[in-house]
Amino acid sequence: MNNNFKKEKLRSIVSGTILFDEPMSKHTSYGIGGPAQAYITPNNKEDLKSILKYSKQEKIPTYFVGSGSNILVSDNGIDGIVITLGKSFKKLEINKNKVFAETGVMLGKMVKECVKQNLSGLESLIGVPGTLGGALIMNAGAFGGEISNYLENVTVVTMSGKEKIYNQSDIDFTYRNSSFTDNEILINANFKFLESSEEIVTKNKLKASGGRKASQPLRFRSAGSVFKNPKEGAAGYFIDKAGLKGTRSGDAEISSIHANFFVNHGSATANDIVSLINMARKKVSEKFGIILDLEIKTLGFSKEVIE
Ligand SMILES: Cc1cc2nc3c(=O)[nH]c(=O)nc-3n(C[C@H](O)[C@H](O)[C@H](O)COP(=O)(O)OP(=O)(O)OC[C@H]3O[C@@H](n4cnc5c(N)ncnc54)[C@H](O)[C@@H]3O)c2cc1C
84: CA distance to ligand 1 center in Å? Predict the structure, then answer.
């Protein structure tokens, strides 16, 4: 760690929670990751803005996370500040078919509340872990639906502490990707869903949750799909056909249930996951000529270790 910001100064700025040298393994679904120099949960918007302005002024590397269900953090940890809104930005308001939500709201909670109000549009995302913020960045999707489908706008805060609103059409949402930049933190969003019936939304929801339970290794810690599906087909299919299902590196395994899920059996390290990533890429490229792109986001690695 070479970024010596002043702990006392940071403490005097943050009114929310600040944890120094906080193991990221506590904040990722993999249960993997070395310490973040400072892991901060701002109390509110004003708190967030002062932290961002301070880190910009002091040139402290700053990263945003939701609930860590799509990230692999290096065993060496993160040199800088990590900010999460997952515990504080929790407002969720439903008014007829309009929904306002802060990005710390868990996606699962939002789906359930919409289903309760017979609003259609999010049911297929039932069971996708994580916060609304992470879902928007990733353009989370499942069983034909994507979070961006019924989105109206998103408010972000820049590193200068300024708020900006993007309309849906300002943002380029593609498969598991969005065009938000790394130096803006998403704070809330508005949606307009379809008014539907209890019968339809319940049917859609049950179909999606049944499909998930049947196809995913939900007993073990993972970050969901490691790679994006290439245009030729499902990444998991090619990893399986390359003979890699069940392959282990340390305590990490390419799941024998779903080959695009790499699971942690208890004490896997980020290096174990990286070894499996490199192995899957190499074998799939040799056998099928397909280059697999990562879906999971990585934090704290140098480019040579993982692209
Ligand atoms: C068992 C399992 C099943 C899964 N199934 C699916 C699935 O079916 N479909 C799917 O799409 N995904 C799936 N995932 C992946 C994951 O749940 C989603 O990508 C989720 O939307 C990530 O949300 P998060 O809050 O955990 O984000 P994180 O993992 O914390 O972060 C993801 C990205 O978003 C950024 N980010 C997070 N919050 C903010 C913010 N407020 N402002 C700016 N940037 C932010 C981070 O920097 C990072 O780049 C699955 C994961 C698991 C573990």
Answer: 12
Is 295 assigned a catalytic role? yes
Name 45's Cβ contacts closer than 8 Å, sequence gap at least 6.
Answer: 157, 187
Residue bearing the CA closest to ligand 1, atom 32: 134
Instruction: Please report, rounded to a whole number, the percentage of residues in the chain having pLDDT higher than 70.
Output: 98
Please tell me the predicted confidence (pLDDT) of residue 4. 57
Q: In this predicted structure, what is the pLDDT of residue 133?
A: 98
Tell me the pLDDT tens digit for each residue of 250-282.
999 999 999 999 999 999 999 999 999 999 999
Q: Which residues line ligand 1 (CB under 6 A)?
A: 29, 64-71, 85, 103, 128-131, 133-135, 137-138, 140-142, 176, 185-186, 216, 218, 222-224, 297
Does the pLDDT value for residue 305 go beyond 90? no
Write down the mean pLDDT value for the chain.
Answer: 95
Q: Is 238 exposed, middle or buried (0-12, 13-18, 19+ CB in 10 A)?
A: buried
Cβ-proximal residues to 80 (8 Å cutoff; 6+ apart), any chain: 3, 36, 37, 38, 55, 60, 61, 62, 63
